[in-house]
Amino acid sequence: MELLLNEKSLDGQFQDQDDFYQVLPVMSKNLGALRKLKISLLKHSSLYDRRITKDMTIMDLQNSKGKVNPIYRDQVKKWKRELSSLIMEPPFWDSGSSESEDSLEEAARRRTDVLSFPHPDYQDRMLDIAYKDGSIPIKSAVTTRYLLDLLWERKAMGAFEYLKLRYREGKLRTEFLDAGMKSIMELQKTEVEELLIAFDRFEMKSWPEIQQDRFFCYKSYQPSSKKQDYFLHTEFADKKIDKFRCGKHSQIRCFGYREEECFYILMIERDHSVSDTG
Questions:
Q1: Cβ atoms < 10 Å from Cβ of 276
Q2: CB contact set of 189 (below 8 Å; sequence gap of 6+)
Q3: What's the per-residue H, E or C state across the chain?
Q4: In the structure, what pLDDT confidence band is assigned to residue 179 with cuts at 50, 70 and 90?
Q5: Dist CA 262 CA 242 (whole Å)
Q6: pTM of whole model > 0.90?
Q7: Quick one: 35 exposed, middle or buried, by C-beta within 10 A (0-12, 13-18, 19+)?
Q8: Cβ neighbours of residue 62 under 8 Å, at least 6 residues apart?
Q9: What's the CA gap between 51 and 59, in Å, rounded?
Q10: Which long-range contacts (CB under 8 A, 24 or more apart) does 146-153 make?
């Protein structure tokens, strides 16, 4: 799969250099996700000339040696390397015979979508792009969540990759999920949707609300014997394991542990083989 970088999302909309720096952490996450999933990001070769402020282009920013706000100092080098890669390194979609005028038109021609910088005209939305005698809808992703949803819809990743990338910084954390876990590999599309509804509900509620919500039936995992303790011989044996269900009538259970305000999911179960013993 391939996406195009929307150069039109840089038209001098940022007030100053620091204003632009504030959006780069999200773009950095997006680029990291695309690299991890081995999805090509095609650019227009004139990207270096696009303006981030009324008076500064990306190339101007790359060449600038002025004072940097201390809160960005440690990250600026990394961001500049990533911007340099976007500007200078292929693939460039306009290096061939395409007659498209911009990346939006080229994305429509290729029947794909675009990654954009924050801009009111392109912020996580569907765009109707004039093409030949009609129009073609494409999606413009700015936030990481919208991008991941887009890639999931286009089947550019499986359920495991989707859950790992989408839930990594909120109340729910999936960083310890195992890629070889049978239950995750067998998840059906409807079950993934069930998980997403439950996970989003979980993240929006306070801990007292979660513990009282009959939707989750949040409780401690209490195996009847050491022999039946699923986590006894794992690196999480010393953790207080809890579990919750993904809806009042859901068959899916999630096991993990709470640490301060976060819940680290260790296992997703579909058949109750562990849940019924604890």
A1: 10
A2: none
A3: CEEEECHHHCECCCCCHHHHHCCHHHHHHHHHHHHHCCCEEEECCCHHHCECCCCCEHHHHHHCCCCCCHHHHHHHHHHHHHHHHHHHCCCEHHHCCCCCCCHHHHHHHHCCCEECCCCCCCCCEEEEEEECCEEEEEEEECCHHHHHHHHHHCCCCCHHHHHHHHCCCCCEECCCCCCCCHHHHCCCHHHHHHHHHHHHHHHHCCHHHHHHCCCCCCEECCCCCHHHCCCCCCCCCCCCEEEEECCCCCCCEEEEEEECCEEEEEEEECCCCCHHHC
A4: low
A5: 12
A6: no
A7: exposed
A8: 48, 80, 83, 84, 87
A9: 9
A10: 147/30, 147/33, 147/115, 148/33, 150/113, 151/1, 151/33, 151/37, 151/39
* C-beta of residue 34 within 8 angstroms of C-beta of residue 143: no
Given this model, what pLDDT does residue 276 score? 64
If you average pLDDT over residues 152-161, what whole number do you get?
90
Rounded distance, CA 139 to CA 111, Å?
10
> Mutual orientation of helices 73-88 and 24-36 as an angle, nearest 10°?
60
Structure tokens at 273: 């083989």
> What pLDDT, in 10s, does the model give residues 29-45?
999 999 999 999 999 99
Q: Would you place residue 181 in the very low, low, confident or very high pLDDT band (cuts 50, 70, 90)?
A: low
CA gap 149, 162 in Å, rounded: 8
